[in-house]
Amino acid sequence: MKSMTGYGYHEQQYPDCAVSVEIKSYNGRFLDLLVNLPPYFSALEPAIRSYVGARCRRGKVEITLRFKEPNAPFSVSVNRAAAEAYREALAVLGEIFHSEEQPSLGLVLGLEGVLGIEKKRDDTGYWKQVEPVLSVAFAQFDAAREREGKRTEEDILSHLAVLEASVKTVTSYVPTLEVSIQENLRNRFMELLRTSGLVFSQSGTATPPGSIQAACTTLDNRILAETAVWLMKSSISEELARLNAHLAEFRAEVKQNPSPGKKLDFLCQEINREVNTIGSKAPLLEVSRVVVTMKDALENIREQLRNVE
Description:
- With about 300 residues, the protein is an alpha+beta fold.
- The protein folds into three domains: about 5-70 and about 125-145, GHMP Kinase, N-terminal domain (Ribosomal Protein S5, domain 2, 2-Layer Sandwich); about 75-120, no CATH class; about 150-305.
- Helix content is about 60%, strand content about 15%.
- α4 (about 125-170) packs antiparallel against α7 (about 235-255).
- The termini are close together.
């Protein structure tokens, strides 16, 4: 697991030039490469993008290349057309101001476009100088991401352990949950019998024993039928099974996938859905408390995943 934030810098001094590369990154949902180059190095941008893009999958990554070449060979050319145009313009100005003074050579050379200066550059040769520096800078950058990612992974796994333990706790309450549903239904039916006068008449005299026995038999049958219906509606067995599967897959992704960020984010959504369903179905206070713990652990995981590649 790697973090999406990192920093790397390397500078190399060659006999005829100096090259430095700085790489830094921030959180981002997708891969966004920003390459800052001197204008005359634009031809190297595809190679730099390819190098970094093959090694990063998510995040906003900024690469800045600086290049100093004080003794670079260059050629100077004279723009004859521009020089003659300036000469004619200056001659016209002399006539206007009645001046016979001739413009100096220094004045003419300082005018825009008279001289053309071009440094001789070899993009292939420059890439041979830039690539080793880029490689070292990226190695530092990647090492920083791995260090941060390791700390993030440890924190995520600690919260994942809380989720796994919580699922076991909720599973242990399943029998109690079924008994609670049945007991609640029995109490409701008994209250219904009392209020409807099946057990006691309106005058307060007891219902004959045969009627009580018949009422109790009917009551037991109704309780069993209603319990079956409520258990189907309130059962959390399927949610627990899916939750265990999601948690197992989450742990496997952390262990096996070098860039699990997107997959883990999706799994968190699925885990959250199952936790919410369990919380809405289970009426036990103990289960509700465990659900709060699970939500807190899941939120901490999702917060950390914002920085995972």
